[in-house]
TrEMBL record:
GO terms for biological process: proton export across plasma membrane; regulation of membrane potential; sodium ion export across plasma membrane. This is Sodium/proton antiporter (CPA1 family). Residues 17-399 form the Cation/H+ exchanger transmembrane domain. Keywords: Membrane, Transmembrane, Transmembrane helix.
């Protein structure tokens, strides 16, 4: 109990300190998530030794539960900030990003893990699936805030948000297919994947999430019409929806990540953006509150010995995954995506596909089930590489994209004015 109290005190204290300098951090090259990770390393057993998850029980189980809760809160926040009409108007782009995009990223990640770490193919495919989804928690600081609104086109921000929310849940299918093939015969594995993973875990979770989100939204509307709910309880209501959806998903042994995103997405289809404007901002604050502790805990749970055993292959894996897993895929898909008008936007979206809380969740889950420490060793190293690389480049590349797009619009306007000024001259010459 004393250890638990120490952990709660340190997590709360660090979050307090980061909140006090949050405006400075928003203008600095060091985002709160990166600082939280570094503070976690400092507090962990390899440094000050103030937090050691192994003394509190199963480290993997603790990280899995913390990541699951953080994802649930984060996914509802993602759904709240996406306009109601955006999925309907852009369903083709979103489908291409989520289905072919995820398959290509999984194939590339699997090949990199297989070639660099030399693992058996299906183990490489399992780790490749874990690091495939983009993360909504780590992506939120990139696509929200004044800096993002000023420099990143709105359609691009919404595409990144929706993709990061949806592919976390669909990542369940990619993760469980290689896991089943590792633990069962091919015929039994495929049968279980089609009936249990696809139909129940994903299909039923999606339907139940949609129903839950619809019912929750309608009940809120009825309560508001009758004046039964106070305005300050609306934020509590959306946070409670996230927790309820996560709990329901786990109780029915389904894909709770997809269930909670489906619930949030349907909730936004019923409740207008104007009605949920305050909840959107409040939800972002709640997201930050949960995001800081998970990265502190990650810093305390890093497998330093396991990284050392991986040798030079570890850093090479991180670099190649960050450079090759996603940017080439977005360049290939760009001609078919209406919201990506230029190669620069495709590269920006391709680079900012962070690997974080979803990977922590899936790797903790799979390490426990498969009993293979290499799953956590490889995934945690890639997650740390992503937090550092995407955290340090977030603000500079966002500003660079905005500057480039403004210059491009200015040049286009100048060309239009030149053509307009030349038109009377050409007309006189013809006459």
């Amino acid at each position: 109990m004393n250890t638990f109290n120490i952990v709660v005190t340190l997590l709360g204290g660090v979050t307090l300190l980061l909140a006090l300098v949050s405006d400075w951090l928003s203008r600095s090259p060091f985002p709160p998530t990166l600082l939280a990770l570094l503070i976690g390393v400092l507090l962990g057993p390899e440094a000050l030794g103030l937090i050691d998850l192994e003394t509190m029980g199963d480290r993997g189980a603790i990280m899995e539960k913390a990541a699951r809760l953080t994802l649930g809160i984060g996914l509802v926040g993602v759904a709240l900030r996406i306009p109601r009409s955006f999925p309907r108007k852009n369903w083709r782009d979103l489908f291409l990003l989520i289905v072919p995009g995820m398959i290509l990223m999984w194939a590339i990640s699997t090949a990199l893990v297989y070639l660099i770490l030399g693992l058996p193919f299906w183990m490489a495919a399992l780790i490749g699936a874990i690091i495939t989804p983009t993360d909504p928690v780590a992506a939120s600081p990139i696509v929200t805030g004044k800096l993002a609104e000023k420099n990143i086109p709105e359609s691009l921000r919404h595409s990144m948000s929706f993709e990061s929310g949806a592919n976390d849940g669909l990542g369940y299918l990619f993760v469980f297919l290689p896991f089943l093939l590792l633990s069962r015969s091919p015929g039994e594995a495929l049968s279980h994947w089609l009936t249990k993973s696809l139909l129940w875990d994903v299909g039923v979770a999606t339907l139940l999430g949609l129903v839950l989100g619809y019912v929750a939204a309608r009940l809120l509307q009825i309560s508001e019409r009758r004046g039964a709910i106070k305005s300050e309880w609306r934020l509590v209501y959306t946070v409670a929806l996230a927790l309820f959806a996560v709990g329901i998903g786990r109780l029915i042994r389904s894909d709770e990540v997809l269930l909670v995103f489906a619930a949030g997405a349907m909730f936004t289809q019923v409740i207008s953006r104007e009605d949920r404007q305050n909840e959107e901002h409040g939800q972002e604050a709640v997201n930050r509150f949960f995001a800081i502790p998970i990265f502190i805990l990650l810093g305390t749970a890093l497998p330093w010995q396991g990284w050392q055993e991986m040798g030079w292959q570890g850093p090479i894996l991180v670099a190649t995954v960050l450079l090759l897993r996603r940017p080439p895929v977005l360049l290939v898909l760009r001609p078919f995506l209406r919201n990506l008008r230029t190669p620069s936007e495709a590269l920006f979206m391709g680079w900012f596909g962070p690997i974080a809380v979803a990977a922590i969740y899936y790797s903790s889950l799979m390490e426990h089930r498969a009993g293979e420490p290499i799953i956590w060793h490889a995934t945690s190293l890639v997650v740390c590489g992503s937090v550092i690389a995407h955290g340090l480049t977030g603000a500079p590349l966002t500003k660079a994209l905005g500057h480039w797009l403004r210059e491009r619009r200015s040049q286009s306007a100048d060309r239009s004015e030149s053509k307009g000024a030349a038109a009377p001259i050409l007309e006189n010459m013809r006459s």
